[in-house]
């Protein structure tokens, strides 16, 4: 088949690392160019939003959407791309689960704007002006995107066909996406809609340290990584370091673990997990204490003190899709 597929790439509420991960393909980018014509990628090529608006529904074969949805502009982009793409891919942790931007759901939009435009030490704003969706200046109406009350993942606003997690997606998983593009072009069978392009097992199953883990694993106390010398051959949990591996999908190539740092959970929950953070708390909580002398009345207060950032630890990437996903003010 000589006809290339049409590929679109869009950047929403994210840091830009997902776009860089595509560039990290290096010479493999030539494989992408051979398979697909990139018809929309405004961060890297000279495309405008008006170009996307002019495209017909279903005229794009595959769309990659990276970033969470926090503003009206990002929602419009998601709706536009979904209408024009036959296949929609949530690319990266922010699109897949809300990602680190989702931690902003701990605060109301009013609190965020007040902090940024009034309360920070470096802010000089005596009139306490905050951005608004529209304002008239010299007889002309200027507009900004609306700042929504909460961060949402892509599948919370549009239907998503495939998920490619990671912060950012690692080289090997991006190659899986290239294979999907190739299979689509050749008319081969594709994975079922809703598939995550990663392993269906927890990271612990492929962790190189799991074979050296103690039979009776216990966590007598909690440490932060800078507080101890981390044994590069020993399970992080056995060393009192919170590792999200038991509740995180594998397939990342355990890059963090190879750098002697515990998993932070960027690949999101294992299939059929209802809430990644709750699952991790349950799994790790069951290991707390010395098996020979477990005194929860003494241990739990100490653990609570030692665990400095529970929300950022257990919901770093998935708060937007958690059971309790945002701060709500009862009015």
TrEMBL record:
Gene3D superfamilies: NADH:ubiquinone oxidoreductase-like, 20kDa subunit
InterPro entries hit by this protein: Hydrogenase_assoc-protein (IPR051349), NADH_UbQ_OxRdtase-like_20kDa (IPR006137), NiFe_Hase_small_N_sf (IPR037024)
Pfam family, one: Oxidored_q6
Entry annotated with the keyword Oxidoreductase: yes
Keywords: Oxidoreductase
Coiled-coil intervals, chain numbering: none
Keyword Oxidoreductase assigned: yes
UniProt superkingdom: Bacteria
Residue span(s) of domain NADH:ubiquinone oxidoreductase-like 20kDa subunit: 15-179
The protein's name in its UniProt record: Oxidoreductase
